Structure formats: structure tokens, C-alpha cells
Amino acid sequence: LAGTVPEEERCTVQRADASLPYSLFLQRFAFSRPVILRGVTDNSAFRALCTREKLLAAFGTLPVRLSTANTYSYRKVDVPFQEYVEHLLKPQDLTRLGSDTLYFFGDNNFTEWGPLFQQYVPPPFRIPGTSPAYSFGIAGSGSGVPFHWHGPGFSEVIFGRKRWFLYPPDQTPHFHPNETTLAWLHHTYLALPPAERPLECTLRPGEVLYFPDRWWHATLNLDTSVFISTFLG
């Protein structure tokens, strides 16, 4: 379902394609700045398994763990996957606080979802000394995770569009921890001077964003979206 949330006026995250050598990825991006990678994976087979019909047939009766969309105090709620898709997967209410917004991302049961994840082709780049872990999610238009940080990782959009906002570790963004990304976009972002605006871009299916260690980031799904991240712990 197409949302009414706009894309950014200009993407300010550098892009690269499959011609980027691993050595150059390590030199230019791995430890210093984000990059959007295009054409580094082919997940058409995985995408075919992630349609609404296929996911409901495979996982509809299984419980999934939802998290609240606030920064510092995630509350967890378990519901059947079918209930989430049919009743909770809705556009974000601008007036709803993050603590009252439930979001399916990250808390995957790898025994139950493992056969699906085995079909995913992760980005070919790795950070020395880390190991990958998947985080799969589905979310409605206008939903997203507010500003937070953790270790490095990749995030790929399977269906829909996802807008990203990123700040380097030494530039803490101004935000309220219980405000959704959509509310932040309306209340704070528009008032920021150009020099204080984040790096930002909208990912489309087949594009992968890499973000380095400890970079602040927030996400905003512009459509009903399916996405998967590869965290490098």
C-alpha cells in the first residue's frame, strides 16, 4: 500500500555498484561512512517467498514478537503472525507515541524462520572480526524505528521503500525517545538548519544500505515494507 510520506529532496548517502572491490569497501566505508550498494546481491528468489500469501501460508499460525517503536525501552508483545498482518499492519498514526506503536522487526525465531532465511543472499562484504545475524521485518506505511545506534550492519529492502536518516557517532541527533520517526519528521526535521540535517536516502527493493559501527540512524517506511538486515556483531 502506497503511503503519503515523502521521499527526501536529495539523497546524500553515497552510492556504489557491484564493481566496488572489497578492498575499497574496507578503505572508504567500512569504518567511516554509510554507503548504498546496488546490484551486489540477487534476492529475486527470496523476494518471491516474501509475498503476503506465501508468508501467511508458511508462518500464519506461528507467534511473532513485536517491539514498541521507541528508543530506550522496548516492550515486547507476542501475537500470531496472521493477526499482525491482518489487524496490526497499518499506517502509522501521527499522534501515537512510540511506546504504543507495535512493530515487527528483529525478534525472529530462527528455528521457525530459518528455512526462509536460508534463501536470502547476504551482501558479499564483511567486517573483520564480526559474524552476521539476520533481522527480518514487515511494517506499515509511516512506521519506523526512531534514532538509535549499535554495531555495523547492512539493510536490504525486499518490498516497498524505506527512508533512512543517519548521523555520525559524534553528532547526537535531537529527538524525543518516545516519539516515532514520523512525528520527528513533522515536528523536528523540518526545523533543522541545513548544516544540522542528517545524511538521508530512500532505499528501494534490491538496494542495500551499509552503516558503520555506532552511527545513529532512524528509519521510516514509505510504503508497507518487507526488509531484512544483516547485523555484524
From TrEMBL:
Gene3D superfamilies: Cupin. InterPro entries: Cupin_8, JmjC_dom, JMJD6_ArgDemeth/LysHydrox. GO terms for molecular function: cis-regulatory region sequence-specific DNA binding. It holds the Pfam family Cupin_8. Residues 99-233 form the JmjC domain. GO terms for cellular component: nucleus. PROSITE patterns: JMJC. This is JMJD8 protein. It comes from Halcyon senegalensis. The lineage of its organism: Eukaryota, Metazoa, Chordata, Craniata, Vertebrata. The gene is Jmjd8.
